[in-house]
Amino acid sequence: MNVLILGGDGYLGWPTAMRFASNGHQVTVVDNYLKRTLAKQNKSQALIPTPDLLERARIFQSLTNHQIDVIIEDCTNPTALNEIVQRCRPEVLIHYAEQPSGPYSMRGFEEAQVTFNNNIHTTFNVIWSVIKHAPDCHIIKLGTMGEYGTPNIDIEEGWIDIHHRGRTDKFLYPRQGATLYHTTKIMDTDLLWFYVRTYGLKVTDLMQGPVYGLITEESLLDDRLLTNFHYDDLFGTVLNRFIVQAVAGIPLTLYGSGGQTRGFLNIKDTLQCLELAAAQPVERGDLRILNQFTEQFSVRQLAEQVRTAARSSGYQTEIQTIKNPRKEMDSHYFNAAHQGLLDMGLKPHLLTTEIISEMISVIAKYQDRIDHSKVMPRFSYS
Ligand SMILES: NC(=O)c1ccc[n+]([C@@H]2O[C@H](COP(=O)([O-])OP(=O)(O)OC[C@H]3O[C@@H](n4cnc5c(N)ncnc54)[C@H](O)[C@@H]3O)[C@@H](O)[C@H]2O)c1
Question: Cross-referenced SUPFAM superfamilies, in alphabetical order (predicted)?
Answer without folding.
Answer: NAD(P)-binding Rossmann-fold domains
